[in-house]
Amino acid sequence: MREFFLEQVDSTNRSLISLPEIIQRIDKLDQFRIKRALNNSNDAFQRVFTFVPLLLHYNHPSLPSYTEDAPCGIYQFEPNELQSAYLAGIPLNSIEQFDFDGLYAMGSLGSITQTTLSDLDFWLCYSKPFSEEQRYYLEKKLHKIELWAKEQGVDLNFYLMNPEEFRSHKYDSEVTAEHCGSAQHYFLLDEFYRSAIRLGGKRVLWLHLSDECEDYQTTVANAVSNNLIRLDEWLDFGDFSELPLGEYFGASLWQLYKGIDYPYKSAIKILLLESYSETYPETFLISKKFKALLHSNKAVNYHFDPYVAMLEQVTDYLTKRQEFTRLECLRYCFYIKSSEGQFDSWKKQELNALARTWGWSEAEFHLLEMKSHWKVKQAMRHQQMLVEQFLQSYRHLINFARKFQIDPSIMPQDTDLLMRKLYSVFEVLPGKITLINEKIASNLSENEVTFVEVAEHSSAKAGWYMINHAPLSAYDSTKRYVQYHKSLTKLVAWAYFNGIVTANTQLHLASQTISLAKLRQFIADLRLSFPAKPPIVKESDLYHPNEIRNLIVAVNLTKDPTREMSNRPELSQLSLFNLGSSEEGIIGSISIIYRNMWNEIITQHIEGHDSILKALKLISNKIYRNSAPPQSVNVFCYSTQLRNELQKFVMSLVNRCITVQTGGIYSKQADTFNLAGKKWQLVFGKQVELKELITETEQSITVESPKAFTVPKEIYSFASEGFLQFFFEDLPTGEFNVYVLDKKNKVEIYPECLGEKEDKIKQISRLYAEDESSQNSHYLESFNYPQFYQLLQQREGLIIVPFQSKQHRDYLEKRKSSDI
Question: Transmembrane segments in this chain: where (predicted)?
Answer without folding.
Answer: none
